[in-house]
């Protein structure tokens, strides 16, 4: 967690110079770990997974120390598109032979619960994070419409309590000022928010519950055993249990986990504030959007009417020198009305991708007191909150079926080793993109 992507040099406060960092305001700072500390649980990683696990553990009466290599929210948690979308984003039916029909249904219900955890946390603690409800999934091909119809029907059978509405092509102007899409599924139970404000608000709640937070305290080595010892440059933490929540930034700390999550780059640009007229023309209902392609676009308005436009997920490890120049043409394909609009912010970050696209939540093999959560494959905002709850329940002995369901799913190690892993997957993703054109 030390180097930013090209074009995203680190800001003075340790964050990449994103729109989020510029509009968060003053933030609490936490010292680096020095000396030896003791806790029931040590959490490594100060993003949504780590903060929410720590918060949930503290609510259950356990003492927690959290170590972050950079500053809280430095990674994807503080840089993402801010889209709060139900579910995990990928086909869960493939797990039916392993988990059975009931297990797959339980996963789908957990995907809905994940969103409600965020909703309730924001409401309970009055976290100011520009939360806005409403999301539309966009069809770029005719076959996507059939998928959206099936998705809508399934959500209704699951008892989804929020408004869902299918939009055919001739009705798309009600949701978006673009002629690019064949239709969409409007969902009033998903939405968008300012992710860095949410993360820091949750960190403040965790701190108020007694969680000890340390920044610029990278975990360098782990001594395993009945008691775990995590070493940093300035100290060490002894704990009965350990949670590894580094996701795409796990690095060499735990090779077993690193081989199962592939860091992939994603990029976002933010325009200058748009006029009320133009903002309403583009996004009349102020929804969040993403399309259904393998390498998708996602976009929304900020609270001050900027268009935040993201996507172009890269697996190759080669990042653009100028993110704005790279992303602007993609934005103009959707909204040619923005041809003369200035780009004020550009940034990128790493997301964690798993081979089967299911979040990886479980225990380390051979280490029953070491837990982990990673590989959210672009749906981290809600899935991290679910992971935090499931991990805390497991550690506190409040076992629910959910943790065991996730833990039962095997996760393949990406082939090729650290150097060939990304290029091999890039070739696979290229094949998927070519198939979309057929």
Automatic annotation (TrEMBL):
Q: What class of enzyme is it?
A: oxidoreductase
**Which keywords accompany this UniProt record?**
Oxidoreductase
| Positions of the FAD dependent oxidoreductase domain | 40-393
Q: Name one GO molecular function term.
A: oxidoreductase activity
Name of the protein in question: NAD(P)/FAD-dependent oxidoreductase
**One Pfam family per UniProt:** DAO
InterPro entries registered for this protein in UniProt? FAD-dep_OxRdtase (IPR006076), FAD/NAD-bd_sf (IPR036188)
The root-end lineage is: Bacteria, Pseudomonadati, Pseudomonadota, Gammaproteobacteria, Pseudomonadales
Source domain of life: Bacteria
EC assignment: 1.-.-.-
